[in-house]
Amino acid sequence: MCVTAFCQNPACNHSKTLPLEKLRDRFGPDMPAMEWDLRPKLKCDACQCKTVGLIYSPDSNKTSGMGQNNLYGKAKGGR
Ligand SMILES: [Zn+2]
């Protein structure tokens, strides 16, 4: 699971991926992981504004890699 933060300042448009592990290190194990909880804590690195949006996405490297391995393993084993 990854969180991408993007600046909503049209003059800036900065975006950055926030690994949840890092957020947990910073805010502690009780870190609120929902967008409306996180958003007030974030600000743009580039322009320091607080209009930061968040996009949640699965960690594509890990999930797709594992899925492919599983599929290939089953396909090979079945034949
Ligand atoms: Zn910005």
Report on this model:
- This protein has three helices and three strands; from the N terminus they run ββααβα.
- It is an alpha+beta fold.
- It has one domain (2-78).
- The two termini are 34 Å apart.
- The protein binds zinc ion.
Summed up:
Helices cover 39% and strands 22% of the residues. The chain is of the alpha+beta class. The chain has a three-stranded antiparallel beta sheet with strand order 2-1-3.
Chain-wise SSE layout:
Elements: E1 2-7, E2 15-19, H1 20-27, H2 35-38, E3 52-57, H3 60-78
Antiparallel strand pairs: 1-2, 1-3
The chain binds zinc ion.
The helix count comes to 3
The structural class is alpha+beta
Number of domains: 1
Placed side by side, the strands forming the largest sheet appear as 2-1-3
Report the radius of gyration as a whole number of Å: 17 Å
Molecules bound to protein: zinc ion
- Mean pLDDT across the residues is 76
Q: In percent terms, what proportion of residues is strand?
A: 15-25%
What form results from the Cα inertia axes? globular
Strand element count? 3
| Helix fraction bin | 25-40%
**In terms of per-residue confidence, which ranges show pLDDT below 50 for 5 or more consecutive residues?**
none
Question: Alpha-carbon distance between the termini?
Answer: 34 Å
Report the order of strands and helices.
EEHHEH
Q: How would a textbook summarize the main sheet?
A: 3 strands, antiparallel
